[in-house]
């Protein structure tokens, strides 16, 4: 009788389709454990709040990756460690910004009032007065600087991108723009003062001189921003325009510039925000006054940065009122720069090319 031999059945081990993962609340638990240990150590050692926060982050960067390595594996553990380091450095970068804004708001908010924004410092000693003359001066000086720098910057960028073709003049201009980007602001003020001394004599002070100094700082920013925006315009648009027989200058004005207009306006607005808070050039050439001056070509003209400097360094007697005005003016200047940055984003989004899908 022949026995029928049957092959032994193979057993298969089921593999999980999803790798083991820590629960969603694991980072919170690790952070609470790290904070508790750091708080206890700080309490026993007598450390301050900053030391406790540093120890908390350090323990968190050890506890969570170690826990993840035991459950999720080495690859996921390294990812969590890198995430913790990135967020930690981001938090460290925010500390001085948040501290600065908090200090300015805390000290400057009590000074804000209708009188502070609508009155000047003419014939004011001690309490009272305002920054109306400095606001007017800042707006006029910055407006003239924009009128000077924007046409020069935009035309220079158009030449570099559309006509330069990496020739020697274009390379020289690019090098000079790079040099201008790094010059100190006080050098721009000295340049404007030396230039105006040639025409008006020593001791000249006027708002338009401050505009010229700020324009020197604005031009390289406008050139760089416009140049990058023009380079983003696809060459196919230019080639299509040339194929229709359109001359180059009309292609630039009707095709290239409208396409990149949003980015150019954003760059110009950011350049305005960059120079609105400059102090050194205006100290040298624009001067200081306590009266409102609407004529940029005559006499001294006040500005917010110069007003802040003199109000804090020479607050008068008693000094509390002058220092309070300095903090209030600093808050107004920060709000003005913030508004310009938000305006740049809104304008850039509004003028961005509309795409349909």
Automatic annotation (TrEMBL):
Residues 135-344 form the ABC transmembrane type-1 domain. It is found in: Cell membrane. It is a multi-pass membrane protein. SUPFAM superfamilies: MetI-like. It comes from the Bacteria. CDD domains: TM_PBP2 (cd06261). InterPro entries: MetI-like (IPR000515), MetI-like_sf (IPR035906), Phosphate_PstA (IPR005672), Phosphate_transprt_permease (IPR051408). This is Phosphate transport system permease protein PstA. It comes from Nocardioides dubius.
